[in-house]
Amino acid sequence: MTISEDKYEAVIGLEVHAQLSTITKIFCGCSARFGAEPNSQTCPVCLGMPGVLPVLNEKAVEFAIKMGLATNCTISEHNVFARKNYFYPDLPKGYQISQFEHPICKNGRVEVETDGEKHTIRINRIHLEEDAGKSVHDEDFVDAGSSLVDLNRCGTPLIEIVTEPDLRTPQQAHAYLSLIRQLVRYLRICDGNMEQGSLRCDANVSVRRKGETELGTKTELKNMNSLRNVENALTYEIQRQVSLLESGRTVEQATLLWDPSSGTAQIMRVKEEAHDYRYFPDPDLVRLEIAEDYVRQLKKMLPELPAVRRQRFMDQYGLPEYDAEILTSSRELADYYEQTVKIINDAKLVSNWVLGDVLRVLNDKKIEIKEFPISEIRFAELLKLIREGKISSSAAKKVFDVLLTSDKSADVIVKEMGLIQVSDDSAIESMVKEVLAEYPDEVNAYKNGKTGLIGFFVGQVMRKSAGKANPKIVNSILLRLLSP
Amino acid sequence: MTLREYVREIKRGKLSAAESLQSFQKKCDEYSHLNAFITLLNERAMQRAGWIDEEISRGADPGPLAGTIFAIKDNINIAGVRTSCASRILENFNSPFDATVIRKLTDAGAVFIGKTNMDEFAMGSSNENSYFGNVKNSVDESRVPGGSSGGSAVAVAAGMAQAALGSDTGGSIRQPAAFSGVVGLKPTYGRVSRFGLVAFASSLDQIGPLTGTVDDAALILGVISGHDERDSTSSREPVPDFHSFINRDIRGIRIGVNRAVLEKGIQPEIGDRLQKLTDYLQASGAEIVEISLEKTLEFGIAAYYIIATAEASSNLARFDGVRYGYRDDRQETLAGMYRSTRQNGFGEEVRRRIMLGTYVLSSGYYDAYYKKALQVRHLIKKEFDEAFGKVDTILTPTTPATAFAMGEKISDPLEMYLSDIFTVSANLAGICGINVPVGMDASGLPIGVQFMANAFEEGKLFRVADFVEKNFK
């Protein structure tokens, strides 16, 4: 951080759009699935044909309320949908159905942590709206100077989550956004995929001298399609604004597009070009009344949320905060962990393996835990063999690798590969004796105080047993036989 | 012959739908200069009529409107048929789906003879705002037929169809019905599904029948009413047997009248006729009650033209040249394409209303215009609520004057808008209203009166209007 930046602080507010993963669109029966053939998931309603009317998808309402509850919002009893009017080729009706004066959720808050410090971020509102289609310009199949429109996305339900200007650093913005992503995934209301655009973030940012209470002139940043982009774009923009002020110039209110490849932001439009959206209540939709009872019901149905689950993992399983944090990073991973623990009841052993080998495989293969080939039962069987001393941990890693590609149980694999650990004391003892006989010099050296050689003897016994001897037993027999 | 009588004969095989259609088609030929239709569905209608006849001959029941010949306003979608809304911008637009009312009429056995001319996007009171040319009043061809459902009114008045569907946003069924001497019903908001009706002002629009008799309107309303899951604003209110309100007396019916109406500069003959009718109703056992319509008459038009244009400015945004309809391809930029498409695609009145509506919704003006208009709308509703606490139905003229001459008001929009003074408030309040012909003025032009009743009380309208139609001379 430069000195001039040290004199300033940034004020950041985020607007996050999350595509709700309902089966159908928000106002018609078309599929809302991502990635279909362009314009194949459309009907007269989402195409804005003359004479059509919207009918609200109640699932979208349910999802929005869940997000409101998860972020400690008040859920509005009376809801009004409004039209946001503007012309664009990917907006078939010439207006977007959204909420304006009466959003579905209001006045929430969440907590994020950066550098060991907790920050409360207030949520101004969460409102429901429909997504627009997609204009395609830069693809090979589009003639220069023309645009094509894909309306598959048009009418996909969105929630827009708007914070108060409570964020102060790009790191906090990163932490907030990753929390929001984690929440929507826990709630299973959005897949949280920023690259595909199912989670999108715009930022409003201004800077002011530390100690000031008035807000500086803000700019709006768009097109940041990853957590890292959000952080980088904010860092860039804060720096730009500070430099302007430091050189005696002023910040102009504008909307900027982040360009990740150049690491800079381009001005898209200035204040004078701002739209007048002429919001007014949509007369095609009746008021949406949300009963308190319904909200209570949904509240009961909410899953255990990440912060609570993390704390429980620490309390119940005695895990360190770091382990608990990672294990609860996704609902599915936490479920996988808990299911496995339920079977073999060894919280630490499971945690070590999940944090180690399981996550390594997930990272290497770039897959999610739900695509992980080893079920909790088969995983627990493997861990059980370790705990009971039937296989060594090095043998266990071999079995683990086979489990990834085979349907066989750990038991069968161990037998087939001949990896059963020899825990028979007499068998091990005779091997130990053989080794000691083979290395009389080393035995003497050990007895003269070079006790570090114990590792060497263990290694030799293990080699003799082709890795099958239980190292703990080997160790104890060695100690006994070598003791004076 | 009423529609019920006709359907009975069709079902008995005494009349053939195909032959009946032919005779109506002949009338369409004969009166083609009235320009009541934008599209005639000759072959399609003939196939359909033939099918109805076959069904009957094999003993099936095609429904309560078997073989009836309908004209449909050209802002109501029929699958595979052009829906132009009398606009250049939709000159070549074929709808891919049926409106709910079309599906219901089809299920009831109706035959569609054609799509009727109208004011562009239902904006107008004279049918002079059509891209496809004026419609002439069949009673006097130098006169306008009223609007915006002018083609539907003339189709019924001139016998080119047995019945028609129109849409009524501020009087667009009742006013042309009055000018053309037919019955026109605007049902309660939410009574009839709007799905498939090209929206002008969504909170005011309602589809309704134009017919030769009150009983015909009752029969048709029974068919097209009811909740539609594709229209969130359609009501779940039960649909009564409207026929039970036909051929009844009016003893004890409380009818609200308002003396101030007569001071609103209405044509004296209309005032006279209204007075005679009031006396007659009283003599027939009705109770005449003076009520206040002060706010309605004072602010109705102003509130209506703000709310209707605001909604229209948004509803008509979809006609942008991108996906369907007319597009000006000569433009280099997107903004240029939008501007030119809409400049050339819409007529003057439509453009005027889009501008008005855009203005009243603009930030900085919203509170002064749109919000204020909503407040006025609320007051008008309250005024009607109070009135309907005292009366069953309210009687007013339908229009201040009988059909005016073509060209007479087209250059003075404000004057034109005032011809809706008695009709707009039913739309603002969401209640129902009906026009019944009650005679002629000195030039032989039809005079119509309007009965209004509270929401979902169309039965009361049918009862008094049917009584007037059959007894008042």
Overview of the structural elements:
The complex is a heterodimer of chains A (484) and B (473). By secondary structure, chain A is an alpha+beta fold. Chain A has three domains: 286 residues, no CATH class; 113 residues, no CATH class; 58 residues, Arc Repressor Mutant, subunit A (Orthogonal Bundle). Chain A is built from 16 helices and 16 strands. A nine-stranded mixed sheet of chain A has the order 2-6-7-10-1-11-12-13-14. Chain A has a three-stranded antiparallel sheet with strand order 5-4-15, with no helix packed on it. The longest helix of chain A is centred in the middle third of the chain and has 20 residues. Chain A is elongated, with a radius of gyration of 30 Å. The N and C termini of chain A lie far apart (64 Å). Chain B has 473 residues and is α/β, with parallel strands linked by helices. In chain B, helix 7 packs antiparallel against helix 15 and helix 9 crosses helix 11. The longest helix of chain B is centred in the C-terminal third of the chain and has 24 residues. In chain B, 62% of the residues are buried. The model of chain B has no long low-confidence stretch (mean pLDDT 96). At the A-B interface, loops of A face helix 9 of B.
